[in-house]
Structures are given as C-alpha cells and as structure tokens.
Design goal:
heterodimer; A: 4-stranded antiparallel β-sheet; 3-stranded antiparallel β-sheet; 5% helix; 47% strand; B: alpha/beta; FAD/NAD(P)-binding domain; 5-stranded parallel β-sheet; 25 helices; 38 strands; 21% strand
Chain lengths: 121, 837
C-alpha cells in the first residue's frame, strides 16, 4: 500500500464514458478501448466496488487482465491474471505475487448507470 | 558511519540487506555498480532464455535502495581508491569519503589465451549483457560449442538448447565433467544423459586455436582434430576482479583474489572484501552461499560484534539440463581413509556414491547424479555426524514399499542443523517461526526466516519441519482450500450438495468468508459443475470459472483461443473433416492433430468463437471440453472391425464411453482409452481409466497418467462384460469426484489414498462402503443432464454478447494479437521479451 503515491497523482483531467453497468460481467472484468490504450474494468459485485487497471499483464506482456479472476487477500481486492496467476492489488496496482511489476490503476465512477473511467489526457 | 560498497552483484546486494538489518545509527551507504542493472540473480541466469525477464531476475528494484537510504550509482564504476585519504573516485568523477570500504567486485569470466578468441561469435557467460549478445547471434548458429564442463558450462549448454540450437558440444580439458563435484563414474552417467539431448561431450580435450576470418567457423584442438561451429561460449572458470584492489596497494594472491583474514578484512583495517573477489585461506569461493556468509561477517563486524568466517561447506545440488547433480562433504575420499558404496543404473541414468568412515559410523561425503531426492537428508546426516543405519546402503537405495515415513527424518535432526544454506537458517529457526511467530504455512516461514528463498532446494524439508512442529504442538494440520474456506474440497462437496447451493456467491455466503480468490473460485465452480452439471457460463457463475471455462476455449500464448470439437473415439467422417478444414480456413486457424485423436484449431479471436462454433454445431459437432477440468477424450485403436488381431470392437465401445461421460466436470481433467487387444495400441494403461479387450471381456485399469510424472494405471477388475465395466467406471469416477482435492489427477489421488488400489477395489468392486448404488445414481443424473455448452451459448444472444474483446467496441478484435508464419501455417508470436531500462 502506498497511499502517498496515490495522492501524488493529481485528479483525473477527464472522465470518459466506458460502458453501461450491465455490460460488465458480475464479479468479473471487461476490456475497454480508450484510443490505443486497453483498460481492464472490473465490477466486484460482492463488494459493490468498481476498479480499473491496465489490461496488459506485465509478467508476460499479455493483454489479459480483464479476463482475470477477482478475489481478496486479507481483505485487499486483487485480480489474478489468467495466464500464470500473478495477482495484483486493484487498489494500488502492486504485484502481490512477489514480483516487481506493478500495474497502472485508474479511478472509476458510476453515474446514471454509466461507468466512467478517469484518465489524464 | 560512511560505508562505500564497490560492486552491486548478488553478494554486494546481500551485504546491503544484512547491514541495514543491524540497525546501525547514522549509517550512510553508497554502492557503485559497473553494470547498468541493479543486482540480479546470476544463479538462475539461464532461466532468462527460458522466458524470465530482467525484472524477474532482479533481486531488489532500484526503489528499494532509495527507500532504505542507500545511494545506488549504476553504470558508475570506481576508478581509484586513495586509502590514505580514505576516498574513492568514480568514473563519473564523484569523489567520496568512507569510514569503511567493501570490495564486492566479484569475478569475470576466465578466457584462456587461445588464438582467435576475439572473433565474432565467441562469447562468455557472466552477465545479462553477455546473454543479450548470445541471443542476437544464436539465430544464425546451427552448431554451438561450450568450452568448460563445469557448472556454468553445463548451464551455458542448456542455454544453447533453449535457444533452439540442435547440435551443441561441450569441451572439457579435465578427463571428466564437473571435475570439482563428481567422479568419473558420475560424469559418465551425465555424459550419457547429455547425449540424449543432442549435447556431445569431449573430455580431455585442449583447444589450440579458433578458426575463421572475422567470424568463428570452427576450432582446432591440440590433438589435431577439428570441430566446425558457428558459436562458442567460453566458461572455463572465473577470475577475481582484483585490479582496483591491486592498484591501491592491497595484498592480492599469486593467482588473483584480494587476501582477507577470518574477519574478511584486507591488509587495511578499514577495507574488506567479500564474495568471489576475496581470497580466504588460499581459496576463492565461487558459490553464492559462502558469499552471503561473508557479507554477514562484515555487516556484523561493522555493528561492533565479533564474527568470523571459517570456510564453507561446498556441498551443492543442482538441476542441470533436467538432470539432478549433487555432491556433499568430501565426495572423492577413498582408499584407506574411507569405505565407499556405489550404486549405478545405466538404464535409468542414476549414479549414487557414499563415502563413510571405516568403522561405518560416520558419513563423510558422496555424489548423486540423476536422482538427488536424498540429498537434503544425506547432507544433514553428514554435517551433523548423525548415526548411520546398520547397513549404510539403505541411505541411497530406496526402501521397499511400505517402509518408512518420508517426513520422519526431520525429527532426528539436531536443532542446529543448517536447513537453508543460502540464507543460513537452522532447524531451530524454523521451529521457532512456527512456535513463536505463529507461522503455519511455508510462505509465512519464507517471509519470517527467509528460508527457501534462495535456490529453493530446501523447501520440501522446511515444509516437513513445519508440519512436524505443528503436529507436536497438537495443532491439526488441516487441508483447507484457502483463506476464504475452512474446509477441504471433500467437505465442501458434501456441504454444497447437502445445502443445495448452485452459485459461487451462495456457497461463499453460506460456508465461507470474505470475497473469494483465484484458488477457491474455480474449485467451488468445479464442485458445483460436478454436482449439478448446469451451464458453467450462466451469468452469476461466469466470472468464477477457471480461465478456460469462462470462454469455453483454451487461452493460448498471445491471448487467442484454441477450439477442439469432440471426435468420439477418434472416429470421423470425410465430410466432417471437410467442415473442420473449411472453418479453419475461413477463420485463419492453425490446425494440429492432438495426442487424444482430435483436431485442435489455434489462433481464434475471442470475438470469432461463437461464429466458429455455430458452423461446427450446424455440421453435427459438439464441444470437446478440451478447456475444462472434465472428460477430454476416449482414445481407441481400430479394433476388431478392421484389425486382424482385434478381439472386440474397441472403437464402438470408446464412442459409447465418451458419449456417456462427455461434459463430466471433475477435480482435474480425465482421459481414457480403449484398446482392442493386449497389443494396447490405444495406450489405455496411461489413462485415468483405460479398457483393454481380453478373450473373455474387458480389463479395466485406473489411475494412470502421462504428464510430468508418468504413472501406469493399475488393474481394477479383469474379464468383465461391457455393462459391468460401465458400472464400475460410474462408481470409480463419482468416488474420485467426491473425494479428491482440487486439481488432483486420479493417479495422485490414489497415491495419497490409504490402502491404495486394494481399498479402491473394495469400494468400487466389492462395494465395501455400501455407496455403490448411490454413486451410480449420481452419475446417471449427470449423464441425463448433459447439454453441449457451446450449443447453449450459440443459441443465446445474451451469452454470445460476452464473447468480445472490447466492451465498448464489440466488433473490434484485439489489435495487439500477433502471429508469425511457420511451415505454411502460423504461430503465436513469441512472448514479448522486453528488457527494463
């Protein structure tokens, strides 16, 4: 957990509408196209929490995290890559499998059934 | 206190770690590294070619140094040391004062002065930069030669294999491989194993010159023979990096190395040397464990506590090119000083030697090649001078079945037995971690003591000690699923059934806690599927399925999927073959015949999967469940319909079996086969359940598998008729599904079962538990409930809509997917190997 680092990032400059809430798999993820970027968007239905991270798993550089499995480790929400089960914190992006490869996270908000992802232009 | 460390290798980094842990007040550490990368794991350097990245190998990221107040100057070697003024000056012109200076400069590859070593295509094997150069050159090479048959040379030869070079040679000057670790007989076994991997060994050979103009073409030896090659890797030993020490007037050995005393102190009391650059008692230690010990000696000394280095046990165990090689104690002692027992199996490639005292009481050393399972135990017996069994041969020949408990050995170890030599962790440390720190998993012990975090070789022993200590405390060692469920899979299976639960969330709310994880989600989903046989991808369960079940296809390198339609018994009509051909052409898929007599189509985008299946289903295909922990295939030989030896119609029976159990979800995949006679062309004895025709009926074999640890199936029942055979299989499979741990194949399940095959036969054939009928009924319910999952998906617009890559651009495919051409088809482009800058 690195709260300072979270705070260092200034608020998103722009929110873009990714999809409708019902488009997202329950307790799972989908991949969102944002220009040339791929963003993994997760709806942790059990916890009623939304998260977004980069879709690229840094371990073997596979566009796969959106197809990963959600879970918790000591209450910390995480996603496991479907390729080799490397897990990442959804809150900080930190790799929880002991490897040195953190992922980028994005803020998410829901308004009127539309899911918005915050990006820096 | 100002400490300057010259060198950021494994030992230099470990020194920083040790120094930080001493809690020295007002500590300023500056590290100068010559390489541009932070210290990385040189022991596992070869794994770089097997797919590991620089990040994987890095010991601690740059930010770790920063967070701990260490100034790390990479790519900035120290050029000059002024011992009078106690300053160093670096390449970038930085001048710095020190109170203490530590040389951890390591070593470089020793390159013998052979004419032509400067030609292109000649490399050494030390750093990641060396590996990158080898990598760039390798595609042009058909043949590779490695000079040096020691540890590193064999690693380099393995790297050549990983790089796809088919013809590799090892040149060793000594009369045998690994001359420091093993004897001639051990080397012979190793040479033989290497030969099977297309690595040719030439011992007792001395290189005279390297041939070629600018680039290497071949080598000529002192015996006049010539070997053509496109690449040469020299790994003929190491040379301590002592040039800086020499220049500033420190004492160095006649053949190199900075001379140190037992405190690792040089002839200047403010200057220390550790690792491969240090010469202690006329000895350079080329292994990492003694280097770590030296680092601890100096760190302890700087904290004003006395500690000395008294040499180090050079026992090692390694897996070289898939072959275990180990030596411990004095591996070579013989003659009048010791007795020796040798076990040699040329057929399986195993050599074991133990040396013990003449009175038969003390183990002095030994060598293991091909099978080093006993290494940890032998090392402990040797180091702790433990009593030998009456017949010392029992130490290396495995006792017959039923004899001895594998974990029992740890009980006899004294508390000060060194279990993890990389990190210097004793048995007592591990016991204390369990009793005082409350560690109850190997992971917790790793974190707490650092045991098993180096080479990892001691992990099984750490686990045995942990389990034993827990048991001693009266704690039950429960086999629970994960942090979210306090039940074993078998308990959960019964509870889910009893409480009639049908979704992961229901199960978690009723029986577990928290929000699940990648361990319990697929395990529970598998239980639900095994119990009710409902559609796995229905909305509330879709995201809890194992990776491949979520999209009903096998995810492959690059993120595309492969498609395997069911071809029961391997029988297929020409018309259906044409449909597969058409589909594969239309969607640009790579096709290959599988090991289970089916056809696999690779490279399908997730978006295309429903359309592909729509066409396959229209032509009469159904899902092959190749993606599931489910029944895969029932292989068959052609049997009595065509074969002149066939006793029964094995194809028809295989089709009947496959259609009965298709879609059956289990703790792991299930494979089966039917052979029409004892010639066994369908290889039924390597399957989870296999059937072989006899004059009188069928023989049913169970619990075999191929895979990483092949195991033959065992005969469950002989000469039974077709109906009885199916009844037994019903019972066998349901019993397995009910009682096995997650991801446990039938073979492992049986190996763990008390009473083994006799117990299983009693349950299945003699119905000793009185559950035979119940098991059959449960199976019949699953059979009746079968539906083709892909048919359900293709027919449902809602389910189909989930098969897209982008949720906000459903028609677009993943633009990052890349293929490369190969033999008129295509393959997934290689793992993207990006190096960190």
């Amino acid at each position: 957990m690195m709260p300072e680092e979270q705070q260092k990032i200034p608020g998103p400059e722009q929110w873009f509408a990714a999809c409708r809430t019902e488009d997202v798999v329950l307790n799972g993820g989908v991949c969102v196209k944002y220009g040339d970027e791929q963003i993994a968007l997760f709806y942790f239905t059990r916890r009623n929490e939304w998260y977004a991270t980069q879709n690229l798993c840094p371990h073997k550089k596979q566009m796969a995290l959106s197809r990963g499995m959600l879970g918790t480790k000591n209450e910390e929400p995480k996603v496991a890559c479907p390729f080799h089960k490397k897990t990442f914190s959804l809150v900080t992006g930190e790799c929880l499998s002991g490897d040195e490869c953190d992922i980028k996270t994005y803020p998410v908000k829901v308004e009127d059934g539309i899911v918005f992802i915050g990006v820096n232009v | 206190m100002k400490v300057v460390v010259i060198g950021n290798g494994m030992v230099g980094q470990k020194f920083c770690e040790k120094l930080l842990s001493k809690g020295i007040p007002d500590l300023h550490v500056t590290v100068f590294g010559e390489e541009t990368l932070a210290a990385y794991d040189r022991v596992h350097l070869s794994s770089y070619f097997a797919g590991k990245t620089v990040a994987d190998l890095t010991l601690q990221p740059v930010k770790w140094y920063k967070e701990n107040g260490i100034e790390l100057r990479l790519g900035d070697p120290v050029l000059e040391v002024d011992r009078e003024r106690k300053t160093v000056r670096s390449f970038e012109g930085m001048s710095l004062n020190y109170d203490y200076l530590v040389f951890a400069t390591g070593s470089s590859a020793f390159v013998p002065p052979i004419p032509g070593v400067d030609k292109q295509g000649v490399f050494v094997y030390r750093t990641i930069e060396d590996l990158n150069m080898i990598w760039r050159h390798a595609p042009t090479a058909k043949t590779a030669v490695v000079i040096g048959g020691g540890l590193l040379g064999l690693e380099a030869a393995k790297a050549c294999l990983d790089l796809g070079i088919k013809d590799t040679h090892i040149i060793e000057f000594a009369p045998r491989l690994m001359p420091r670790q093993i004897d001639e007989a051990g080397s012979d076994i190793l040479v033989q194993q290497l030969k099977e991997l297309n690595i040719t060994t030439h011992t007792g050979k001395n290189t005279a010159a390297i041939l070629g103009n600018e680039t290497i073409r071949g080598m000529i030896f002192t015996d006049g023979s010539i070997l053509n090659t496109d690449m040469l890797i020299i790994s003929a030993g190491i040379k301590p990096r002592d040039e800086l020490a020499r220049a500033c007037g420190l004492t160095v050995g006649p053949r190199g190395g900075i001379v140190v005393n037992d405190e690792m102190c040089t002839n200047d009391s403010s200057v220390f040397a550790i690792g491969e650059c240090a010469l202690h008692n006329s000895m350079i230690y080329g292994l990492v464990a003694p280097g770590y010990e030296m680092a601890d000696v100096v760190a302890t000394r700087l904290a004003d506590v006395q500690k000395q280095f008294h040499g180090f046990d050079m026992s090692t165990k390694l897996k070289l090119i898939g072959v275990d090689v180990a030596s411990f104690g004095d591996p070579f002692i013989a003659g009048e000083e010791a007795k020796t027992i040798v076990f040699r199996d040329n057929h399986r490639g195993i050599y074991k030697r133990i040396n013990f005292s003449n009175d038969g009481k003390e183990l002095l050393g030994g060598i293991l090649v091909g099978d080093a399972d006993a290494y940890n135990m032998l090392l402990q017996v040797c180091k702790n001078k433990m009593a030998l069994p009456p017949d010392p041969m029992d130490l290396i020949i495995k006792p017959k079945e039923g004899g001895g408990d594998a974990g029992a050995g740890v009980v006899a170890l004294p508390d000060n037995a060194l279990i993890c030599s990389c990190e210097g962790v004793t048995k007592l440390d591990i016991c204390n971690a369990v009793t005082q720190q409350g560690c109850e998993t190997v992971d917790a012990i790793k974190k707490c003591t650092k045991a098993a975090t180096g080479c990892g070789g001691c992990a099984p022993m750490v686990k045995d000690i942990m389990v034993h200590t827990l048991k001693q405390q009266g704690k039950m060692v429960r086999n629970v699923l994960c942090e979210h469920f306090d039940y074993s899979r078998q308990e959960l299976y019964d509870l889910v059934k009893l409480k009639d639960l049908h979704s992961f969330d229901e199960v978690l709310d009723t029986l577990g806690k928290g929000d699940g994880c990648e361990v319990c989600r697929p395990a529970v989903s598998s239980i639900i599927a095994s119990l009710w046989n409902e559609l796995v991808v229905k909305k509330e369960n879709a995201a809890s399925q194992d990776t491949n079940d979520r999209f009903l296809a096998n995810i492959q390198k690059g993120g595309t999927y492969s498609v395997v339609p069911r071809i029961p018994g391997g029988e297929i009509t020409p018309d259906k073959l044409m449909v597969i051909a058409q589909v594969a052409k239309k969607y640009g898929l790579y096709t290959k015949i599988t090991g289970g007599q089916r056809i696999d189509m690779f490279g399908a985008h997730v978006n295309d999967l429903p359309a592909i299946w729509e066409e396959l289903i229209a032509a009469g295909f159904e899902s092959g469940h190749a993606y599931g922990k489910a029944l895969r295939t029932v292989k068959s030989c052609v049997g009595s319909t065509w074969c002149r030896f066939g006793l029964h119609d094995s194809v028809s029976y295989a089709i009947r079996i496959e259609e009965r159990y298709r879609g059956l979800r289990a703790p792991h995949k299930l494979k089966s086969a039917v052979s029409g006679c004892i010639r066994e062309c369908a290889e039924a004895q390597s399957k989870d359940f296999g059937i072989i025709a006899t004059e009188k009926g069928w023989n049913l074999y169970v619990c075999g598998n191929g895979g990483s640890k092949p195991q033959h199936a065992l005969l469950l029942a002989a000469d039974i008729d077709s109906e009885t055979c199916i009844r037994y299989i019903d019972r066998f499979l349901m019993f397995y599904i009910k009682t096995a741990d997650p991801l446990t194949r039938t073979a492992t399940w049986l190996n763990k079962m008390e009473g083994g095959i006799d117990y299983l036969r009693n349950v299945v054939v003699h119905d000793s538990l009185g559950i035979g009928e119940e098991l059959e009924r449960a199976m019949q319910a699953l059979v009746d409930n079968y539906q083709c999952e892909w048919k359900s998906v293709v027919e449902s617009p809602e389910l189909r809509s989930k098969f897209s890559h982008f949720v906000n651009a459903p028609m677009e495919k993943d633009p990052t997917v890349r293929f490369s051409p190969m033999r008129d088809q295509k393959k997934a482009s290689d793992w993207n190997k990006i190096t960190v800058s």
